[in-house]
Amino acid sequence: MKPFTRIDAKAAPLALSNIDTDQIIPKQFLKTVEREGLARGLFYDFRFDEAGNEKADFVLNQPAYKDAGVLVAGDNFGCGSSREHAPWALLDFGITCVISTSFADIFYNNCFQNGLLPVVLKADEVEALMDQARGGNHVVSVDLEAQTVTAPDGAVFGFEIDPARKHKMLNGLDAIGETLQRASDIDVYEGRRALDNPWLERA
């Protein structure tokens, strides 16, 4: 998992509430366990018509936002089923941070396990970011160490984050990476167990 420290990126406004994980990545794209290639399915029903043509009015299809790295979304983002493909698809598309007033719990947890930073701001702060993005001011700065989001107009918004999750994001640690930090201790334990209880090592 890549460390997340600070990004300066274009923000795309998606002023829709209750976007569920099936809307983020529809079920037909869940046949793979690979994380690459899922960008094609991100918001598929929003991005494409029945013939597979791009819908010009969807924000991520518009030239100003096609390379956005931050998504500013409506309330209760990521509700629905607990599919880990949702953060995978966002990351594969190039979005590394989602800002909203609230997130569904399972999606929120999955974000931290995969290196996607979910930021919770106040409703007026989210609306300010959306307004500026719509008006042509696209670039925001998200600083995880300082726990701040800097809007295009220079306004700074602070956000809260669990210290343990912050540490893991800053250091690029998922659950496996966190465990491997104690690899030497695990090796010592397994060595002692083999000596003290050799029958446990028998096939």
* Annotated CATH topology: Aconitase, domain 4
The overall strand count is 7
Query: How many domains in all?
Result: 1
**Helix fraction by DSSP (H/I, runs of at least 4):** 25-40%
Structural description of this entry:
The chain has a seven-stranded mixed beta sheet. It has one domain (6-172): Alpha-Beta Barrel (Aconitase, domain 4). The longest helix has 14 residues, at 183-196. It has helices spanning 21-24, 44-47, 85-93, 105-114, 123-134, 163-171, 175-180, 183-196; strands spanning 6-14, 70-73, 97-100, 117-120, 139-143, 148-150, 156-158. With 203 residues, the protein is α/β, with parallel strands linked by helices.
Overview features:
single chain, 203 residues, alpha/beta, Aconitase, domain 4, seven-stranded mixed sheet, 8 helices
Compact overview of the structure:
The chain is an alpha/beta fold. The chain has a single domain, classed as Aconitase, domain 4, CATH 3.20.19.10. 33% of the residues lie in helices and 16% in strands.
